[in-house]
Design goal:
By secondary structure, the chain is an alpha+beta fold. The protein is built from 9 helices and 7 strands; from the N terminus they run E-E-H-E-H-H-E-E-E-E-H-H-H-H-H-H.
């Protein structure tokens, strides 16, 4: 069955230089070369791309299903004896007004090969490929070192995204204080959602790095390489700490927005009250004088000056109320 996805094969034969190809026929010879190193990177586009994982690698069907299925699996690590299967989550580019999209990366680590599968193009992996092309020492120190390099490249993309989210929160806080509107509320909620996605991506992967560092897989992870996974673990701990700070900052921005909106509403209500009370007094007075009361009532209904006197009284009351409000600093 023909592959629909893109494959890149980096193969370093024993004692020779790195070779790059997309020819599947190279795989069988590379797998038989116990002293060589093979890195197969597969950009999955459909379930048919799992054929290359069945033959010649003969991976477990459940791991192949995880690698090609169009869903997001939780980060995990499974020991299958001849190889270990790792699921991690990489992050694509950050856009201020869009939700962060995680990309699942499935990794197989064998005695002389590393297989990586992902369903979207990842700059982190492409950049690491370029590093391997320029610096052949990255492919000369064993498959465990190559796995470390791939995982380190994926995790290194987290910190710039965290910094970008932090800058977004700073901009939102400045805008909230300057010109709060409804669109800012949507952006704040987007930041909170992105912070949650970052947390969901980092926390499970921290446990994976801890297991790789503890020496649980001595047949595939050498002790001299295991310590480098501790460095990735430390990076994830730092990112997780920063993500928690981002969540607090996002909550603070939300509270600031709600406070500013509440203060604006109070100001509006104050203005409406100041404008409404004098009109209410005038309505009350005019309502009283609209009653059929003539005898003993001031001013007499048949007087030529009564209407002007009533209007003057209403104006005086309204002016008095405005002066009182001003004296209390209400306006």
């Amino acid at each position: 069955m023909a592959l629909e996805g893109d494959i890149t094969i980096l193969y370093r034969p024993a004692g020779k230089s790195l070779v790059e190809t997309s020819d599947r026929d190279v795989l069988r010879g590379a797998l038989a070369d116990e002293g060589g190193l093979l890195w197969l990177d597969l950009h999955v586009r459909s379930e048919a791309d799992g054929a290359i994982l069945e033959d010649p690698f003969h991976f477990h069907p459940l791991t192949i299903e995880d690698s090609v299925a169009d869903r997001m699996d939780a980060a995990k690590i499974d020991d299958h004896g001849e190889y270990i299967f790792i699921v991690v989550q990489a992050l694509g580019g950050y856009m201020e007004h869009e939700e962060l999209q995680a990309v699942e990366v499935d990794l197989y680590l064998g005695p002389n090969y590393v297989v990586s599968c992902h369903r979207a193009a990842l700059p982190s992996i492409e950049q690491f490929k370029e590093r391997c092309r320029r610096d052949e020492t990255l492919t000369s120190r064993g498959t465990d070192w190559l796995l470390h390099g791939i995982l380190d490249a994926i995790v290194d993309e987290y910190l710039p995204i965290v910094d970008a989210v932090d800058e977004t929160i700073d901009d939102l806080e400045a805008k909230v204080l300057r010109t709060p509107d409804r669109t800012l509320l949507q952006q704040i909620m987007m930041v909170k959602r992105n912070a949650l996605r970052l947390r969901r991506a980092t926390t499970p992967q921290r446990e994976i790095m801890a297991r790789l560092d503890r020496g649980e897989f001595p047949r595939l992870i050498r002790p001299e390489t295991a310590i480098y996974f501790r460095d990735i673990y430390d990076h994830l701990v730092r990112v997780e700490y920063l993500v928690e700070a981002l969540r607090d900052l996002a909550d603070g921005a939300l509270q600031t927005y709600l406070s500013v909106i509440s203060n604006r509403l109070n100001e509006i209500m104050k203005v409406l009250t100041v404008a409404f009370v004098p009109l209410t007094i005038g309505t009350l007075v005019s309502g009283i004088y609209g009653m059929n009361l003539t005898e003993g009532f001031w001013p007499p209904a048949d007087s030529s000056w009564g209407f002007g006197a009533v209007v003057a009284v209403m104006g005086a009351i309204a002016l008095g109320l405005l002066l009182y409000f001003r004296s209390r600093d209400w306006i």
